[in-house]
Design brief:
Its EC number is 1.20.4.1. This is Arsenate reductase. GO terms for molecular function: arsenate reductase (glutaredoxin) activity. The chain is α/β, with parallel strands linked by helices and about 150 residues long. It has one domain: Rossmann fold (3-Layer(aba) Sandwich). Helix content is about 35%, strand content about 15%. The protein is built from four helices and four strands; from the N terminus they run βαβαβαβα. The chain has a four-stranded parallel sheet with strand order 2-1-3-4. β3 (about 80), α3 and β4 form a beta-alpha-beta unit.
């Protein structure tokens, strides 16, 4: 089983959405993944994240914000993906064969639901490509380059 950790600063929005989207893609593509998310600090899962994920049938109501140290076997992941620049800078060093990726997404916090949906949809595209690459035995995308404009308001 391939283990994936998705990191953000507060584990309240982007990393929570990416975790759910990655699990969903793995389920649909038949890829055996153990997916977790964490933050450099723990806060709470934002209601807007729960709302826009529920629109896709993905339930974040049982998700909790956690730090890296709250994740089972935190030093043993095949892939560590940071989804914000702050987490990329604070990301701990991993021993062994861990592959790091940085897919920076705009922080939707404080924005409209349309902004949240745009970030969610970008993540859906990125993490589906990530899981598809694993299924195909290819290298996962090294960066997130397809970043259409996200509404600011």
């Amino acid at each position: 089983m391939t283990r994936v950790l998705i990191l953000c600063t507060h584990n309240s929005a982007r990393s929570q959405m990416a975790e759910a989207l990655t699990r969903d893609a793995a389920r649909h593509l038949g890829v055996d993944l153990d997916v977790h998310s964490a933050g450099t600090e723990a806060t709470c899962v934002k209601e807007d994240a729960k709302t826009v994920m529920a629109e896709l049938g993905l339930d974040l109501s049982t998700h909790t914000s956690k730090t890296f140290w709250d994740v089972p076997d935190a030093q043993n992941f095949d892939y560590v993906v940071t989804v914000c620049d702050s987490a990329a800078e604070a990301c701990p060093v991993y021993p062994g064969k861990t592959t790091r990726r940085h897919y920076p997404f705009v922080d939707p916090s404080g924005g409209s639901l349309d902004r949240w949906r745009a970030v969610r949809d970008q993540q859906k595209t990125q993490f589906e490509a990530f899981v598809q690459a694993l299924k195909d035995g290819r290298d996962v995308p090294p960066t997130y380059e397809d970043s259409p404009a996200v509404p600011v308001a």
